[in-house]
Amino acid sequence: MKSLTALSFxxxxxxxxxxxxxxxxxHPPGAAIASAHAxxxxxxxxxxxxxxxxxxxxxxxSAALSVVEPIxxxxxxxxxxxxxxxxxxxxxxxxxxxxSPAAATPDKFLDKNGNLxxxxxxxxxxxxxxxxxxxxxxxxxxxxxxxxxxQSLAPAIRIAKNGFPIYGRMANGxxxxxxxxxxxxxxxxxxxxxxxxxxxxxxxxxKDLATTLERLAENGFDGFYRGVTAKRLVAGVNAQGxxxxxxxxxxxxxxxRDPIRFRYHAWDIxxxxxxxxxxxALAQMLQILAPYDLKAIPEAERVHLVVESMRRAFRDxxxxxxxxxxxxxxQKLLTSPDYAAGLRASINPSKxxxxxxxxxxxxxxxxxxxxxxxxxxxxxxxxxxxxxxxxLYGSGLIPPGTGVLLNNExxxxxxxxxxxxxxGVMGYEANAPKPGKRMLSSMTPTFMESKDKVVVIGTPGxxxxxxxxxxxxxxxxxxxxxxxxxxxxxxxHQWLPDVIGAEPKAISAEAAKAxxxxxxxxxxxxxxxxxxxxxxxxxxxxxxVEWDRRSNQLMxxxxxxxxxGKAEVLAxx
Length: 573
What we know:
Oligomer: single chain
Largest sheet: 8 strands, mixed
Strand order of the largest sheet: 1-19-2-10-11-3-4-7
């Protein structure tokens, strides 16, 4: 359902029924949830109705997405969640990124000629990192939730047992990945039951995944990272030629980190620190752009300035960012207004800066199949959560008897320095794999807060995540509402390759012509008059909620690009 639904706990109410105020409200009038699948949004609403808070709802939504969006995320992957605890006023960044197995050294991903072995880095047992999402669910429920983990996981368990109708994106993704997935007996048992591959409209049941979720619900951390599930995961990986061990699972730990905070115009921005690259890049881009009145600038000039900020942020991402537990990230410098001012000074207002001319060390896209959800509750608690298995259907490998589709996040490491990964992003030593190290991510869960508004925003989209969140922030700053922000057309630049990509209608033909005259290379969709090789599909799946404290109204925005998403507002009982 794409239109906003205002739902009381007993009956449907229009959003306009919320009382208008002339004074900023202290608490939201209810809760708002936006996620990429209606069943996941419904799971969060169910838990809120049962007395849970935003954190319980986040566990329910996350687990439900793990069942209904295996193309995008799941228990075999990881996530980065940004939490705001209203009672204490604290913002907490929870890092459940996957970690590198000890055996997964860089040489294991090279072919006989010393080149990156793409098949091994993106498919099968070697591509998978140690999952973090189950530990996230346990940690958030036990540390910040009000309800037992078992209660918050109940909707996901029910959906896995009873099944749900397969939708187009899921069926199409399977057709693309089938040659990989059908290699593995555990995966075939789920996606080709009785030898018949899944198809749109089929009822998709996952009994093994339901049992795995039940163990997690009953035994918490040990229900996944030790015991039966852990043994089956290790056995399934090793049977396909991988090298996992039980200790690597048992020693996995969640990391709580301090978020990045900075100011943009009237907004206080709170966002993701490393191991995400998104927060530092956002701080750089927005602080570069802060002096400009972008709304008043003609389209071509606006796109030019935004692209030049993207170019500089992604250049720094390549050389400086990695797991802060393993490398020293110059975060204070990279996020300082003075550093941004220096980057701004290097921008020619009428000419593109060739990426190979940017100075620095000797120079040498996470797939869109990630998912995001945003939640705010009646107490003002909020969650911005992005989670993933990386490329569509991750590694393609389900260890038999688990129902757990493993990620292929090892491709997000710099497995060979200076060689681009699946998203065209490259890296060096800062993001090289080491035992227990977390691979760099683009996931950028973010909060925006002004005198009158509170916003929760995020999206999937690989390396484009960062720029899509940037454009969403600029949209809110321009005065758009949540649904308008979710629908915004998107464009992107990531330093290398040195080209502007765009969705349909993101850049007009007139602006494209002007940008080319400035020296920009453009890769535009076929329906743009300027032409070009064209973008293959739409980008992202942005989910956002906002609370207007002046009117005391809640609104959700779910990306209209995908019909299965849903934004919902629940009135306070």
